[in-house]
């Protein structure tokens, strides 16, 4: 047998991608202690804690309005399953944690959906789980968003279209129908 055949099978690692946003992130630099765009390993038996207390939290948010421990993430495997999950727990007595539409009070916890938005105060975090097989550790991969994660989408309104097929919202100059032009014509 060759060394390739004898090599151990490479194990994939569960990775939690987290994209952070705060409206004052450029002025207040609250994310300056986070390692962005770098994968970090966390042992499976450790809790990933986020907050302002650097003695307790591995992920520090430099903001006096953030609790010493804002929230924690626990990696676990579902009973009678090979599926790995994260459980998120609100550790703040003062601030509610919102995971998608679920509001968590102090010490409340839920399973983290595979893709969700976590909010507290003015903080917005997009969390996405990339599945893996390793039972020894998981990875975090942090990103910084340039624009709000919850930014409203500008979708056209679903107004009924009149029988003539021309919507007045598309052509604000009322009473006039659109003029057809050849695409090769210059303006």
Automatic annotation (TrEMBL):
InterPro entries reported in the protein's UniProt record: FHA_dom (IPR000253), SMAD_FHA_dom_sf (IPR008984), TIFA (IPR033621)
SUPFAM superfamilies: SMAD/FHA domain (SSF49879)
Assigned keywords, A-Z: Cytoplasm, Immunity, Innate immunity
Entry's localization field: Cytoplasm
Chain positions covered by the region annotation Disordered: 165-187
A biological process term (GO) from this entry: tumor necrosis factor-mediated signaling pathway
CDD domains reported for this sequence: FHA_TIFA
One GO cellular component, as annotated: cytoplasm
Every FHA domain range: 49-121
Bias type Polar residues, positions: 165-178
Recorded family membership: Belongs to the TIFA family.
Name of the protein in its database record: TRAF-interacting protein with FHA domain-containing protein A
